[in-house]
Amino acid sequence: MFTSGHVIGKRYQVRSELGEGSGGEVYEVLDLRSGAVLALKIQQPRYLESTNAYALYRKDVRQEIALGTSLGGISGVVIPLKSGNHLGRAYFVMDRIDGFDLGEFARRAQPVSSVRSAAVLVQLCTVLHQVHSRGFVHRDIKLENALISRGGVVTLIDLGSSAPSGEVPEVPAGTFGYLAPESTSCGVAETSLDIFSAGCLLFRMLTMEFPFLNKTGYAMVRRRLPIGKLVNVDPVVRRICVAMLEWEPVNRPTAAEVRDELSVVLPDASSPAPPRLSHDPVRWWWERIQRQERAPMSS
């Protein structure tokens, strides 16, 4: 862990730690050349790993850099700006999102309302649809891998586990509690994996619980979804959440279908303005609709 004031790559001065996970450490840094405040993700330090194993972790960071660059033009994905090596550890810098992850968003609400959950999923699935359309699967959708800004904008992060759709990745990925049942037997990266994980994310926001969880973290044995926990949820949101958590991958909706179905729950252009709340995806949606209404018709 780097302390405040440490300079990475002779350019990025650490201001504070933003987070840590298996993929690396994330810091808020000051670019000493431009004066911009950015986020920097750096490979974990080496502990007892073999040289080959540590090289694989470095490969994950470099893969995240390459994939982020290839997904340029997609709104809602953090794109690497610069990359390098520091003390033998690969790193890259990206824009700093002024907000926090959806795990904190859910903890503050306990639980998140149906309409706010729908507004989050509409944004998240808009991003996922574009990622899937580019031929990639994220493979680690969870509350902690999506950020929400003060303005209510949702951003997907941590692309290090992503893989081309239809291929068998070298290393398994995913987080316990969000893993699709086929994760234990099928190594192929399919977009339906992301949909199931996003369904778990939605269920967690709505109930503060995982839909399927046992000691292994996998939904290994076919079990009945505890729909009773969704009794107070908007009927449309409940129906979509259940569909996303279908046991059979072919029965799950696509990201675009989730986006379109949940959009009907959100305010339209004639709806009263929602309160001005910080980190509110519903307000973001309403303001977006208002901008579209005011946009001049093209000739």
TrEMBL record:
<keyword id="KW-0418">Kinase</keyword>
<keyword id="KW-0067">ATP-binding</keyword>
<dbReference type="InterPro" id="IPR017441">
    <property type="entry name" value="Protein_kinase_ATP_BS"/>
</dbReference>
<keyword id="KW-0723">Serine/threonine-protein kinase</keyword>
<protein>
    <recommendedName>
        <fullName>non-specific serine/threonine protein kinase</fullName>
        <ecNumber>2.7.11.1</ecNumber>
    </recommendedName>
</protein>
<dbReference type="InterPro" id="IPR011009">
    <property type="entry name" value="Kinase-like_dom_sf"/>
</dbReference>
<dbReference type="InterPro" id="IPR000719">
    <property type="entry name" value="Prot_kinase_dom"/>
</dbReference>
<feature type="binding site">
    <location>
        <position position="41"/>
    </location>
    <ligand>
        <name>ATP</name>
    </ligand>
</feature>
<dbReference type="Pfam" id="PF00069">
    <property type="entry name" value="Pkinase"/>
</dbReference>
<dbReference type="GO" id="GO:0004674">
    <property type="term" value="F:protein serine/threonine kinase activity"/>
</dbReference>
<keyword id="KW-0547">Nucleotide-binding</keyword>
<feature type="domain" description="Protein kinase">
    <location>
        <begin position="12"/>
        <end position="266"/>
    </location>
</feature>
<keyword id="KW-0808">Transferase</keyword>
